[in-house]
Amino acid sequence: MTLITQSQSKCGVPASRRFKLLDFLSLARQRRALARLDARALEDIGVTREQAQSEAARPMWDAPDNWLKSLY
Which 8-state DSSP code applies to residue 67? Predict the structure, then answer.
């Protein structure tokens, strides 16, 4: 029996690139959620409003170094 694998999805984007895109979209979603936290929630996680706003303002492709090592 022959096993045939498909290296690209039907949308034409290779699976490895598709997962990276999903990771970046997830990071953007997390940063938007961070920007919406109230003062009490920020205090609970030990982040100031200024730090949260600074992180939320970063573009989605500006991922932390440890993310980039696992993505590439």
Answer: H
For 6-60, how does the pLDDT look when each residue is reduced to its tens digit (9 = 90+)?
Answer: 555 556 666 666 668 888 899 999 999 999 999 999 999 999 999 999 999 998 8
CA pair distance 30, 6, nearest whole angstrom = 31
- How far apart are the C-alpha atoms of 61 and 68, rounded to whole Å? 10
Where in the chain are the domains? 15-71
Q: Report the length, in residues, of the chain.
A: 72
The full DSSP string for 4-63 is: ---SB-TTS-BHHHHHHHHHHHHHHHHHHHHHH--HHHHHHHT--HHHHHHHHTS-TT--
